[in-house]
Amino acid sequence: MDIETTGIVIREYPKGERDKLIIVLTPEMGKIAVWARGARSQKSPLLSVSQLLSYSRLKLKKNAGAFYLAGGEVINLFFEIRDSIGRLSLSQYFCELSDRASADGLEGGEILSLLLNSLYLLCKGESETRIKAVFELRLMSVIGFRPELSGCAVCGGETDAMYFDMREGRVVCAQCARGGRGAGAYPVNRAAYEAMKYIINADAKKIFSFKLDEESERILSKATEGFMLTQLDINLKTLDFYNKL
Ligand SMILES: [Zn+2]
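^ thats the input. predicted complex w/ zinc ion below
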């Protein structure tokens, strides 16, 4: 069966001397594994469409339940990202997290557009810290770990500092935190808290469109990363690498 789809390569595994197995995120089929035969040869017509971060129109063949890459045409290779080790390793982290967080065949479209938009903005040189925070929190929201951020979980109020309980996925206000209800929670300032609300509630096309000072961006990013790691309970080599740069 012949299938045409768009998709971005989020993982690649060398197989044998010439072949690769690639993990592709597609809008209709979600995440699929595709065999790219001969794709490791420098002369292969599949060389560019099968590389990590390559977003392409793909021709696939499905045979006995497995997908094989038959050809394709690159839409975007995100070259500008590859100029910077920071942006490149952040992109690799986005790919690894997309792969680990998405079930086969599920939520393909939303994760794909979140990933593509994040990569486009990285190409434009926008704030890595902000893009990373939006990617993490929105992804968590999409895959069913949406935190409850409409006011304090105890009294419903909102104070200048809010305490983010990463395990419970909720916030507690400063007063209730002083009363002992915020034990172990991570303090976020009001700007970072408002940004978190915006990221989970805004229309997908607008989630990156907010302004935040550098300090609040840093707080936001710690909160979103901590939330993701706490909830998913996973180790991500690419994130460790990025954070060590
Ligand atoms: Zn409260």
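The chain has two domains: 2-76, 85-146+187-244.
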